[in-house]
Amino acid sequence: MTIGVFLAVMLAAVMHAGWNAIIKTGLSKQTSMFILTVGQALFGLAVALFFPFPAPEVWPWLLASGLIHMAYQLFLAYAYEQGDLSRVYPIARGTAPMIVLIISLLFLSDSPEGAEVWGILVLGGGIALMAHGVLRNGESRRLLPFALGAAVATAGYTLADGLGARVSGEPLAYVGWLMLLAAVFYTPAIVALKGSVVLRADARAWGFGLIAAAASFGAYAIAVWAMTLAPIALVGALRETSILFAVLIGWWFFGERMDRGKAAAAMLIVAGVILTRF
């Protein structure tokens, strides 16, 4: 991985933590996620219009990823209804690199080696320590199945989009079409689960939601582009350094508790990032 790709992925990590923080502030997490999804689709359409229609071999990847993104959005919003940003986010994002690493080592030709593997494993240790506070501090355990569901979905769409963008050859166009499909799948699903009330929001909610959508679209476009140039598992792991930024946002802006466990986990995450650069 070149230094340029590395810095781009780190920027994407900051943007990803930022849009999650905006979703967490919403009164209705599913309404906030709906607005985000609509915004992503609008950005996706604006981008897709400048590129040719995707080739037939790209559509299986797009359809699969669109469905997985729908599941991710549902799980994540439900998890935020149950717990803090600084707890849900590490579990939801942090388990995914371990899944991606295992699949990459078993099935992909560009899997990471040497220090990169150790870096991903150290990242995983920091993430596990961060998540341990759910059980130790008596926080709501109901967040765990939803956060873990989001983690499995994250691993699924990371692999699907890394491979799909390589087949496409146009990562930005790929993300544009993906965001359109994700909105098509998510909207009827959330209406069926929550009713039409989830679609109601005021101008302020739409404003923040569209800001989150811009950050989300940009962050993921960078990540998918990076996965066409560097090992998918490595990019996926570096994206999860957003956990550190999310914990800091939760502490500074939401007044969430910062204990020694969170601090130690944050240091492990930073150590993992450093190892991935050797």
Describe it.
The protein is globular and about 45 Å long. It contains eleven helices and no strands. The model has no long low-confidence stretch (mean pLDDT 83). Helix 2 (29-48) packs across helix 8 (203-227) and helix 7 crosses helix 8. The chain is 80% helix and 0% strand. The chain has helices at 3-25, 29-48, 59-80, 85-107, 115-136, 143-168, 171-194, 203-227, 232-239, 242-254, 260-276. With 278 residues, the chain is mainly alpha-helical.
Question: Which terms summarize this structure?
Answer:
278 residues; 11 helices; 80% helix
Q: Given the C-alpha coordinates, what overall shape results?
A: globular
- The total count of helices amounts to 11
Helix content: over 70%
**How is the biggest beta sheet arranged?**
none
State the low-pLDDT regions, or none: none
Percent of residues in beta strands: under 5%
Gyration radius (Cα, Å) is 18 Å
Cα separation of the termini: 10 Å
Structural class: mainly alpha
Spell out the helices and strands N to C: HHHHHHHHHHH
Number of strands: 0
Averaged pLDDT: 83
In short:
This protein is mainly alpha-helical. It is 80% helix and 0% strand.
Per-chain topology:
Layout: H1 3-25, H2 29-48, H3 59-80, H4 85-107, H5 115-136, H6 143-168, H7 171-194, H8 203-227, H9 232-239, H10 242-254, H11 260-276
Helix pairs in contact: 1-2, 1-8, 1-10, 2-3, 2-7, 2-8, 3-6, 3-7, 4-5, 4-6, 4-9, 4-10, 5-9, 5-11, 6-7, 7-8
